[in-house]
User: Which sequence fits this backbone?
């Protein structure tokens, strides 16, 4: 996100290509590229755990960076002016006036993204990583009761996501922002 | 030395020339209204004085220090120059109290207890002592603007700039803000109030406002036409655009001109044409 806003062309180009790549391709593809691609080119084995962590981190970075940049840029110019006119430096403007408001603004899209991310983790089962969905497959294979197993798993996903959403709603209530 | 010395200032946004050869001196304690049509550069001039906008040439000195130099210490300047905006621009995520104290604690390094004390004083001055813990969105427009004035006051600036502070307010809320200003004016803080747009109607309203804000000055608010008021007394001039606008050049002059109305020294200049004002100043 910082790279995207610094006034230095190559940094911006780098940041924009990174963002475009990770936003423009499916996270499943990214998982596969990292899990199968890296060993192919470098010869080093990548564990499912590492591949999942790396892929989801890069993927989240591309999205969250843009969400947060958007939130900061969405704070009205008048807030910058008002805070400048009382003598705050740029860093102080960000710390006391801009970021607190941008944070509040970024809560709903950030949580929305997390909810997606939690569900997207099911994709990691493809590369053999034992997350919720993979665990369910294994359990189903052992018990032959797909409805029970998958409904339970769905409920676990729901619990995680619902908790996130509730948290977001509470945060939104507590923080205030310019409209 | 005047408090503000503006000399031959030029300012443009790209191709658009906004201020052209503007010169103006303001003494400590003087109250100046800058009046002009929409787009004539009133706000721009005020924003140049506290360094929010750069200028292309000329000099602006405040309290002897040049404002628009590269090495200007804007942080120091802005502790001495307060500005109140048309749209209030309070910080919505802070209480009224924090809105007022943030600059004190962060910029002036005043201990919080003392800053809260100052906040209580200034908020009482604007008549909102019971709103210290409210958030801006719980206040009316007039109340928000009074908080904004208090926020500015808390820094005890030498100069206050008011940029169209009543034009975003409903008519019935304007009075409360002006009353606050009138009280401040009595305390003798230098104010530059960016005034109402000049149309026949709003000019009259401005005269109303001024006479209400500054009792004792000899403006009769009751429907006097501009010509009828001028000249009222020794040293008082009112120049309306009808009186001073040179024919043929209306367009160019209107855009670049503005009207300072100085009441601090029983001088009242109203014009849309800067060169006329300079002419008058020269012949003082």
Assistant:
């Amino acid at each position: 996100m910082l790279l995207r806003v610094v006034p230095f062309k190559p940094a911006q180009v780098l940041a924009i290509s990174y963002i475009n790549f990770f936003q423009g391709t499916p996270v499943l593809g990214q998982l596969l590229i990292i899990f199968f691609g890296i060993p192919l080119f470098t010869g080093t084995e990548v564990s499912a755990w590492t591949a999942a962590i790396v892929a989801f981190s890069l993927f989240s970075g591309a999205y969250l960076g843009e969400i947060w940049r958007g939130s900061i840029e969405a704070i009205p110019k008048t807030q910058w002016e008002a805070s400048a006119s009382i003598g705050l430096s740029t860093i102080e403007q960000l710390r006391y006036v801009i970021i607190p408001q941008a944070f509040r603004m970024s809560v709903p899209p950030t949580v929305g993204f997390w909810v997606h991310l939690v569900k997207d983790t099911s994709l990691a089962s493809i590369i053999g990583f034992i997350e919720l969905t993979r665990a369910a497959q294994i359990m189903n294979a052992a018990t032959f009761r797909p409805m029970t197993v998958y409904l339970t798993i769905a409920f676990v996903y729901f619990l995680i996501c619902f908790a996130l959403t509730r948290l977001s709603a509470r945060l939104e209530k507590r923080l205030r922002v310019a409209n | 030395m005047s408090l503000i010395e503006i000399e031959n200032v030029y300012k443009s946004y790209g191709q658009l020339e906004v201020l052209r050869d503007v010169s103006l001196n303001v003494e400590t304690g003087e109250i100046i209204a800058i009046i002009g049509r929409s787009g004539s550069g009133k706000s721009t001039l005020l924003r140049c004085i506290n360094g929010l906008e750069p200028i292309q040439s000329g000099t602006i000195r405040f309290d002897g220090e040049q404002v628009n130099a590269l090495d200007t210490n804007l942080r120091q300047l802005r502790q001495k120059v307060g500005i109140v905006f048309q749209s209030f621009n309070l910080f919505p995520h802070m209480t009224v109290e924090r809105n007022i104290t943030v600059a004190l604690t962060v910029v002036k390094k005043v201990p919080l207890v003392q800053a809260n004390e100052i906040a209580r004083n200034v908020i009482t001055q604007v008549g909102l002592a019971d709103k210290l813990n409210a958030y801006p969105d719980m206040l009316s427009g007039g109340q928000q603007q009074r908080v904004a004035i208090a926020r500015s006051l808390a820094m005890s600036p030498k100069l206050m700039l008011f940029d169209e502070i009543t034009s975003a307010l409903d008519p019935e809320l304007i009075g409360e803000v002006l009353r606050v200003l009138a009280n401040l004016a009595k305390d003798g803080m230098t104010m530059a109030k960016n005034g109402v747009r000049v149309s026949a109607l709003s000019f009259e309203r401005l005269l109303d406002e001024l006479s209400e804000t500054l009792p004792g000055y000899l403006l009769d608010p009751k429907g006097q036409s501009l010509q009828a008021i001028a000249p009222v007394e020794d040293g008082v001039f009112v120049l309306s655009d009808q009186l001073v606008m040179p024919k043929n050049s209306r367009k160019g002059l209107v855009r670049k001109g503005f009207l300072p109305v100085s009441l601090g020294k029983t001088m009242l200049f109203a014009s849309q044409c800067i060169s006329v004002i300079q002419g008058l100043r020269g012949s003082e």
Q: What stands out?
A: The two ends of chain B are 17 Å apart (CA to CA). Chain B touches chain A at residues 50, 52, 74-76, 78-79, 82-83, 85, 87, 89-93, 102-103, 106-108, 135, 137, 151-152, 155 (CB under 8 Å). Chain B is about 40% helix and 20% strand. The first strand of chain B starts at residue 4 and ends at 13.
